[in-house]
Amino acid sequence: MPNLATIEIKAFLPAIDFDQSRRFYIDLGFTEAWASEQMAYLHAGRSSFLLTKFYVKDFAENLMMHLLVEDVDAWWAHVEAQRLGERYGVRAEPPEDRPWGIRDFILNDPAGVLWRIGQDIEGK
Prior knowledge:
Blueprint: E1 12-13, H1 18-28, E2 31-35, E3 39-44, E4 47-52, H2 57-60, E5 64-68, H3 72-82, H4 84-88, E6 92-97, E7 102-108, E8 114-120
Parallel strand pairs: 1-4, 5-8
Antiparallel strand pairs: 2-3, 3-4, 6-7, 7-8
């Protein structure tokens, strides 16, 4: 049997305004590990993605990311404290318990990418 072990998977996310999107993600809580004029590698813990200086409206507005965290309410409190919705003109909706066993909140990035940031609900 061949060794099919994986190391990591990363999505390439679009940006209309690359510098604004970099600031948004840093303000959200990601760390920028590396950047060039065309791309930035951002991570929070073991979760990461590549932000690109590339934008296609239909792609960006139909892309969804799901970030599973340990404490969704702490993440939401951080989003509110940073006033991300107001500062970046993006949609930010508070956490709700979903019937599929996740408590999550919705946040769009400046390019229109939809993020669902949530945690598992105990017992679901």
